[in-house]
Protein 1
Amino acid sequence: MSASANTRRSPFLAVYSALVFAFIYLPIVVLVVYSFNRDGVGGFPPQHFTFDWYSRLFADSSIWDSVLNSLIVAAGAVGLSLTFGLLAALALDRTDFPGKGIFRRLVLLPLILPGIITGLSLLMFVVFVRLQLSLVTVFLGHGTALISVATIELFAGLQKMDRRQEEASLDLGATPWQTFWRVTLPNLKLSLIAAGLLIFTLSMDEIAVTFFLIGRDNTLPLEIWGRLRRGITPEINAISTLILLVSILLIVIWYRLRMRSEAQ
Amino acid sequence: MYSKTYKLFVSLPPILWVALFLLVPYALMFAHSLWSVQNGNIVHHWNLQNYSELLKNPIYLEVLFRTMRIAAGVTLLSLFLGYPLAYYLSFHAGPRKELLYQLVIVPLWVSYLVRGYAWKTILGSDGVLNGFLQYLHITREPVGFLLYSPFAVVLMLTHIYTPFVFLPIYASLEHIPRALVEASHDLGAGQRTTFFRVILPLSMPGLLAGATFAFVLSLGDFLAPLLVGGPSGTMIANIVQSLFGAAYDWPLGAAISVCILCFTIGLLFLAEILEKRWSFE
Amino acid sequence: MTSASTSPASSLLAVNSVSKRFGEKEVLKTLSLDILSGEFLTLLGESGSGKTTLLRLVAGFEQPTSGEIWMSGARLDTLPPYRRRVNTVFQHYALFPHLNVRENVAYGLRANGAPKSEIASRVADTLMMVRMEEFADAKPMRLSGGQQQRVALARALINRPELLLLDEPLSALDANLRKEMQRELKSLQREVGITFLFVTHDQEEAMALSDRIALLRDGALEQVATPREIYAHPATAYCAQFIGQTNLLRGSISSGIADMGSLTFSCTGPSGPAVFSLRPESILLAANAPQISGPVRFRGAIRRQIYTGASELLEVQSNLGLLLRVRVPACGPLSGEHEFVFSASDAICVKESL
């Protein structure tokens, strides 16, 4: 058996990578397992499998109210971010104006700026214009923070697109408006969906910015946060596990869509 | 190809949004930092007291340095975990690469809060880890320092940011043409030399992006300390948060926020300069 | 250094019954080949013929599924690429983008721990040899294709390998630059004396550069011979068609007479079905032809005439139905029927396939 010539598979690296994977997944596994534990969270090993926490969860109306609020805000955030993100991506891809560099950096800034800064600056703005804190302010906060996500994804999609398709459309007599709807947007379909899914997930999970813009109605993360401050209950494990399942479902859907479009 | 109206139409709305919801708020925050509080009210009396307070009062500097240490720790740990993982996937994983990549991504979709909460349940005195150690008779009593300490904050944030650090590094590594690795071997360089002289330098842009991301976001994190940090794990953003809450001193809080904002912008500029130097396209 | 044609050359590299399989697909089928010291050997073939795979096996980037490779009396295929006295010039050059020209060229020497002073002088000499000394401090992305190629060459040659592998290094260059680089490569090989193993799909290039050509098809060797030999005496129909142009005549031989349907001529060869290769330039216009031995005549109508500058390529339909290609020196437009003649000895009997 000749010595492998190109990459000698290093067992050390494989073991190390497995450990890193374990580290990444450990808390998630613990979370799910203990959501079925009768004696609640903590101790080892978990005993007494039960669905109790889930049934308690389903009876908990304030959690579901907050879920609804989160969904409303997330839907709004997706719409807002995709719209402005698309325009910003088009502007960055196709126009030139003085200060474009600053504009680009500002659009992308909220991605890396700690959420507390975005949240507080918007809070001061909201107070300044005398707007009441509510789901509307949360919606504005999410939109502002997540436009950058949409911009990045859509900009990448625009760069990958073959510009000549648009030229062909114009050449054949379509107006720029028609070209946008019939050529540009369909080409961006995958980017739009990917960005939409990502924005939706990020909005559903958003805490830092929401923390400072929340009014009377809680979003799901804020509701969970409130309970966490009061104490740990496995109900939280249960809702977390459900969130995890929904997230995985979304990933699978996204993956299928991507595979299908790449096959075309 | 694009008419003036088209260009105006696509650029005006985002510019207005950026101006209204980013620039104006930042300007307001800056203005607040130059005001002060009297008798529970914000007084629009322009001064630099807040900034001198930050420099004079040792508490702020102490917390700031602790925050920097925590952020640095998170960044380094995430790199130590994320880089080898990315390298393994890119160069050694073969056909299973795509599946493993998806597996790394999955935790990113799990709520931040949820993952932080999970660590809380693991590290606590009644937590899973202590239970596990006692079950195996490795310890007889719960280990106290695991939770409510800077250690717990670093652990939790490393867990959060390792996938984030992994992503750009993996992208950078994938971008390296395999022919370059073959060429290096062909010329007589073994695996280690090839890594240090070819692969690592060419993966610098990704590494830089990941490290910047992890560092800045850890720096401004206030939720992790509240969950698992305890009093010894307080970070600078917690101070800001309480100044906007119970400790009611918006101007002072705004001053710290302005500092964080400027620091972030400065770091981003630095990263941009370094990235230009180190990218070889 | 004169070519090693007067003294018998020794075998530098021996490929012994090597096969390579990728999953289900067998890319190289039990192939054996000897490469002689100091020669310029070209692996020629279409894409998918296995020529690049064979090259990569010699370089060490792949392992043979079975068989062995030996070089200078020692087993080669068990060694990793960085321990073989073999260097490669890659198809797209694979220059390190983050290092300048000097550092790229010095890479191999540095990796093997040569002292700094030696590195500096050898780099300078090698850069001069490929005429790139002006660009020593430039980064690869600033160089043109031809310049990058010369740097890639320098980077490989500086290590004084026993064997230099070149993976279609000229395919990315435009036609004129290609011809120039072919000349440079050939003279460089003569000057340095290193054995070259060159891969290409361009048969003209192979003919111009090689001491010997190894024609590969579907993972097997069709023929290994010098350019003159392979052109004048192709082993199979595929060789005859791949290298240069030819007419393939199919028929049978009985008792020394080849019967190709409408053409018959005498030939030596066993009775049975046979294929003959007849080069277009072997067929002459009877009106202009001098006396030739064993003449075979036919009449044909000119269907197409393509003027190529120095010659005319004619498509001729013989009055007994055969379609033949004929190449004659430039003579102005022709039409109608003409008489053609060729020498029976120019019809080379080839095998239908291996």
Protein 2
Amino acid sequence: MAMKILNALITGLAQGSMIALVALGYTMVYGILKLINFAHSEVFMMGAFLGFFGITALGGKDAPLVAGVGGTLLAMFFAGLLGMLVERIAYAPLRTRGKGKANTRITPLVTALGMSVLLQNLAQLLFTAQYRGYPQLLPIEDTRKVIFISAFSVMIALQFLVHKTWMGKAMRALSVNIEAARLMGIRTSRVISITFITGSVLAALGAVLYCLDQSQVYPTMGVVIGTRAFVAAVIGGIGNIPGAMLGGLLIGIIGEMTKLTAYSGLQDVLVFTALIAVLLVKPTGLLGKASIEKV
Amino acid sequence: MSPSTLGDGARTSRAASPNPLLRRILVTLALLGAVVGLEFGFDTLVPDVALQQLVLFALVNVVVALSLNVINGMAGQFSIGHAGFVGIGAYTAAIVAGHIHKALGVDDILFSNSFIVMPAAILAAGGVAAIFGLVVGLPSLRLRGDYLAIVTLGFAEIFRLVIATAQTGGDVEGPIAKFLAYLGGQNGYAGPDRNGVPQYAGPFWIFGAAVVAVIIAWRLKFSGWGRALRALREDEIATASVGVDPTRYKVTSFVIAATGAGVAGAMLASMRNGNPTVQPDQFTFAYSFDAITMVILGGSGSVSGAIVGGVFVTFTVKMIEQLQRFESVQALQAAYPSLDLNALRMVVYASVLIGLMILRPEGIFGEREIIRRKPRQRVSHAPPEPLPARTEAEANPESETGPLTGKAEK
Amino acid sequence: MSALDLQGVTKTFGGLRAVGGVTFKVPERSIFGLIGPNGAGKTTVFNLVTGVYKPDSGSIRFAGEELSVLKPAQIARRGVARTFQNIRLFGQLTVLENVLVACENRRRSGLLSALLRSPSFFRDEAEMQRRALELLAIFDLDKLADETSTSLSYGNQRRLEIARAMMLEPKILLLDEPAAGMNYGEAEGLKKQIRWLRDRFDLTVILVEHNMQVVMGVCEEIHVLDHGETIAHGTPEEIRKNPKVLAAYLGEETPDEAASAAAAEEEAAT
């Protein structure tokens, strides 16, 4: 039993770090635009498909290293492009239109949801609804190690980006006050694009890692993982990068632990219950800071 | 002062009609006559069964949109789990209607019996949904904005998943597990004898529900209560500073919206010729999304907008389905057999939606209504004591044009 | 008898002590000034009095009742009304609707009678509207009653905010920088209006203001804060001479300088 729990813990950590990668995308966009980017889950799904085609094209199983690394990079590149496109099409126009009116605040939420529906069905149209097996590049234990190591190095890199570089400083400035940042000479639309690109690149990495572990790719996969990642971001405190990591790990571990019990079907129920419980105790998430509204 | 039935009155003091009470009674009778007429004339009016279905479904969606409009449109809160409330109403109504129908012992669905079954089903559905609305609304004591949205989503998903994943086969123990098993899990609930939920809601009930919903929504919007809610949407702190308790108004709006959704659910469950089973899959996030679309597309905060949005979304989805009849589409399918027409339909729908929202972020109507209310005829009264003229200089602007005073505008 | 009584009120944000042990009494029916350099904690005091923030310690008593345990809406209903430094109107509502919201708490008929459009609903609406229009007429806004409040000029928005606060029939009116952005003439007008409001509605006015022309001209008693601490209290004459106040304002305009500047302006204008 102890062994089982330990195993579940390890699997949970691997799963969780992968979820955290996706959660980062939600958190970064929310931090800057105060927008729940519902299309993010579908960028994740597209990333998985792109990775699948990339890996297959580069030789798949016959050349695991080249195919694995090359396919992942390809997926990250195109997912980044897709993320930027999503922002330009569905969100950017709304930043200037209908500004300042209280009854247009929910509109970006609708275009975000619309984008998510669009991408999901586009994938259905392009790739059909069938499930495809991912090429098994590595034995499963090694895959988990790879997931864990790459996820953590990426998160450290992201912390560096946000706290030590000019671009990171600009991102943080935008998250405090977008207008003031603009007045200080920051090209806000560019920073926003880069934020979307970064989030999408991470999602694609998470997607390829996820598929290497779970070995299946299909157009509706974004919904399941997207929801969990989103919940992870909120539990950790949306807008907060370490929070997304913490939330991701928690969700991963909760998920694997549920599988040990008789209620494995209730995994997502438990995830949502945990979410509501956390929000009720700490309304801004575990690591989120309550912002004092200046009156 | 003239009270009128379609509640234009909130701030009007129009020339009094001869007998307001008489007018009210006449309008009520006319509306009642219209829905009774529809009950019996619907088949003649709309012979196509598929179209009948669509019309009824559109009306149910109008009720859903009107109820969501109270939270999302007027109060400016984000609720993205409205399908949960509709689902709760549908399950409750199905259980109540199923049992009453069984107790009545008449197999046929009689119009006269619907007056026993439907009120009970509607009351139960609305009541249970209201209780859940209170449970979900209470967190709004502590949460604001997007976090609240997430809680509503979480709640709706928990509701759906608990029912969908419930163990149904074999021996289940404990009252809760037994109840969940009774609800039929993924396959859905089909009445106490599993032979379908009795479909008592014909045009009379569904048109009637839509009309009542419109009247209530209108009167809510054009009352002090609706005004306070719109103020709350604009600025919560300022609203509190004038003595309106944001929490109370938010929670009340949640309860009202949930009740409306519950009633819509009751209609959905008992809809004539509709789906005789209530299934968890009817109440996924996709349905919540449709509801949001109806409200925002029509114009958030607008009653007319919710009506138009509800009808528009229902029919658009269907209309794109009808495109399959076109030869060019069929030729396309022949050329590419693997073409997923359903996916194509959703791609078109989503693109149109995004385009529309970018062109008109405030929705088709914004906050306005189709019927423009007449400008108020104010009783002119002498101002009691005007504020002292601001200054002499201000009273005679000509005398003050010096460059240093900066008094150019005005 | 004092209208408002603050005893050792303290509030910290994170590590910053915004208000530290502030104690003062506001005499009834007075016009009371709360001044100090930027960041002195004046607006925070307003937010504490109106319940937007809860004090960490100390007591705020109004008519013998402790305010710090009440919610903002409850405090407003007790008769403490305010305006905001950065004007917070209900943007998409009309001028009339803005004012009507402020008497919503006084409505006798409930939600049900609104749904049924019962006679009491119409009675209440008509009565509320009559009062609102009367008040708007006082502020010379009645002709703009159907305009959305965002379309008003800056000065009209400021006046509408005061009108909205007055709809509560307050016993205390807290004005947060009402003279901000006003020129000399408008500020002179404001002085008259404040006195007139006090006399006409029999209320206590507390004023946070940077414009010394207004503060020194209209206030009967002044309390000076710096870095959240009290540094002086007294009549305008006393404050003007207080060396601590002068020191606090060093680098900024001193009250004296402001007054003389105002006087100079006055000469220039005539």
